Amino acid sequence: MTFLSLPGAPHIAYHDNALYVEGQRVDDLAEQHGTPLFVYSTAAMREALAAYQRGFAGRKLHICYAMKANSSLALLQFFARQGCGFDIVSGGELERVIAAGGDPAKVIFSGVGKTRAEMRQALRAGILCFNVESEAELEVLSEVAVAEGTTAPVSIRVNPNVDPKTHPYISTGLKGNKFGVAHERTLAAYQRAAALPGLRVVGIDFHIGSQITEVTPYLDATDRLLDLVEQIEAAGIPIHHIDFGGGLGINYNGDTPPAADVLWQQLFARIDARGFGGRQFMIEPGRSLVGNAGLCVTEVLFLKPGEEKNFCIVDAAMNDLPRPAMYQAFHAIVPVQVSNTAAQVYDVVGPVCESGDWIGRDRNLAIHAGGRLAVLSAGAYCMSMSSNYNTRGRAAEVLVDGTKAQVIRQRETAADTFRNEILMK
Ligand code: LLP
User: Which band of pLDDT confidence, cut at 50, 70 and 90, is reported for residue 82?
Assistant: First the structure.
């Protein structure tokens, strides 16, 4: 068996042929709470965060967890307790932060399409900074702030036109993307921001994409960003903080992204050489904090041999795990209990009525109907992107800490899924 380096190891590992998340046997959790079931390791999240903290040791750093990766309240609570702020992209996410006991004063608000109502809500909550993504947004935000009798702290998201070399749907820092203000327009945008009565310039930021596994795109974007900081400050507009966004990738399938501390060691070599090492820094990591801290346990309903393909039909589906259908993403799939069953090659698919409802293709698995599989690297962009398609309730979630396990989300019932619907009169 080549289970030695499971994504999520060492906290997700086999002991005596049974898969464990920290001190909890995954089969026991599934028995107790049913499937599909998301299970998260607290230790894995703590370690992922520590890698960033090491990388920034001795620096002024504010970490804003990009909660879109996984916005379950208990996870937000965990990061808030570790001192993190949050990168939000909607008024709904702000409400989640507050519901989880997070501090709005540590929140930054990204996104290309903030509504006036969301701007007002965030101003009233007293967030740290708006990451503004267009010149039009500057005008509207200023208007809303003036009407509220206040000023909005702003950072402009620069589109550095750098190729992050990742999937096109999650690449955001190229000219053709909808995100940020073009590099060439940035100085003019800052001059406008400084002149508007409702704005207060506090920072600058970029975010070039997600699941980035190389250092070079970050180095290139950093160089371009620092060029801009020099220009903007030379024009008399001080930049208090520099925000490098998120984007660091994880190991899904033998990917080898740099560890967060290694990435930052390399970036600081450049930043220090350019004389910016003493600045206030911010980052917005999402996936790299939670992705490999989670798995999704699913039960095998049927094995369906075919002429061209063998199907392994499981009780999790594209509504629980949308990444394969959306991005042809790879998630490792392993048995929860290693058995002597002969291995066969299967397409692992869910019950949803779409051919796009697959979770893994051509996987060699020793499994039988009634057995359970774990879909790995499922901590990020799975539950937060899940849906009720086919009137499937969202899965339950369990957070493990050592030998303790706690349900942090109850399984949704069908009634939950149509609670807000109204029959005709
Ligand atoms: N900051 C901003 C402004 C972002 O748009 C994102 C992610 C992040 C931070 C966090 O990026 P991360 O560290 O997680 O890479 N659903 C896709 C990923 C979409 C990422 C969107 N933006 C997926 O499942 O791969």
Answer: very high
